[in-house]
Amino acid sequence: MAYNNAIPAPDCMQMSGDLAKNWEVFRAEFEDYVLAAGLNEKSEEVQAAALRRLMGNECRHIYMHNVVLSEAQKKDPTAVLDALEEYFKPAKNVIYERYKFGSCKQGNDEPIDTFLTRLREAASSCDYRGLKDEMIRDRLVLGIASESTRRRLLRERELMLPTAIEICRLAELTESRMKVMESPYAQMDNVNATEKHYAKRSFPDKQERDVQACKYCGNNHKRGREQCPAYGKTCRACGISNHFAKVCLGSKTKKVNVMTESDKNDTDTDDMFLATECVSSINTKGLKWFVHLRLNNKRQACYWRHMQRNEQQD
Predict the structure, then answer these.
(1) Is residue 263 very low, low, confident or very high in pLDDT (cuts 50, 70, 90)?
(2) What domain of life is recorded for the organism (predicted)?
(3) Is the pTM of this model over 0.85?
């Protein structure tokens, strides 16, 4: 197989962030590139030269000053890769790696597959060996963000990793579908609320309809006796409360003849006399009529009785 320069070259080694992870990515991409481009048919010296060319300036600086290799090793691409991996990936601490794995939790908006990939990457350096799938399963159940999905997983008696992954994916898919189904109802509620809002604004004169002409004070004001300025006031014309003189019905006076008795203590005479008095007002309580008269310079309420002809004859 001839060298194929149409295959895009891998990106250079990223020298920021997690260098160990970046090195794993770069080495895997370079080894794939060697096979895809046909460099494996070239000599090891050519492959080593291609590696130095693709690793980038910063990584090449470390290769030249921080990695000790013999002249023969410099021509071997595998030796160069192993030396750089030893530099970028120091001896790992299994306890610390397992601590990081046990601290993994799903983010609020993180897809379940992304979270599962992080768990697999973290578990790869924990040396779990045959227990790797079980540990990933446990961390998946404990670290998932959805409380309802966790309850569903815990109801399974013999939960295996593939089953746990399927349950989590279905729960995530159902949740996304429910959001889509609920969105039209939310929009409809917003439209209804807007219509109600404009309906209220279409009657700006509602307060004007509450204002009416008052027969107690003669002014215009809102309904309710507390709104009337005459409420609790005494009329200057008739002396009755809760109305003004300008609307007093008793302001039009009438003259009536009032019959009074002489002092009861005066037993010497039974003479009766008539006095002309001015009736200032007449009010009624049911079928009874009352008038306010000034008798002997005192204001008194008198019962008004209209006598029929037969009563007068008696």
Answers:
(1) very low
(2) Eukaryota
(3) no
